Amino acid sequence: MRPAGNPRNPGRPSGFDPPAEVNLREVDPDVRLMLAFRAGDPSAFEGLFQRWASRLLRYLGRMVCDHAIAEELVQEVFLRVHRARDRYRPEARFSTWIYRIATNLALNELRRPQHRDLHYSLDEDDGFPQAAEGSPVDEVVHARRRSDAAVRELEGLPERQRAALWLVAVEGLAYAEVAVALEVSEKAVKALVHRARSTVAAKLREGE
What we know:
The chain contains nine helices and no strands. The protein is mostly helical. The protein folds into two domains: 89 residues, RNA polymerase sigma factor, region 2, helix turn helix motif (Rna Polymerase Sigma Factor, Chain: A, Orthogonal Bundle), CATH 1.10.1740.10; 76 residues, Arc Repressor Mutant, subunit A.
């Protein structure tokens, strides 16, 4: 017989929050929203959608290289978030959790035999740093070209290298968070990012 208050006991005392849940709620506004949604506040789910839809669309678009499929995957991500409401437990930052869902969906999509390697227009915002506003025209053009070239090389990387580099370099996740999202070790993430950066840098040098 388990003692009262055991985290696995569905009858734990009302109002009891595990320490990890309390800590993450204090530091992560997305965890607060998800917990509010779990508690029955539908507006919290809308808040999460507003905060995350565009970021996920950008990430998934770069992963699957197809805007329409990326939009479908974003909807599937939020469907899974909605379904997970009652069993949600914040064991990591919300960003880690949602990127894990998104990454799994993207990798599954890329394994589909009918998946086509379609690419975005390079006129779209790619998430890579651009030249500062007011820079001389030639500097802006050069920065734009290098950013476009970097995106092309990124899309040519193996899937997990692409995901690891994007999550670290663009989304700003820590190696430990990316390890959870990709379901690999932190050491493996560092190796993936190193190989991805080396490949992209070499390709950019070749194109200069």
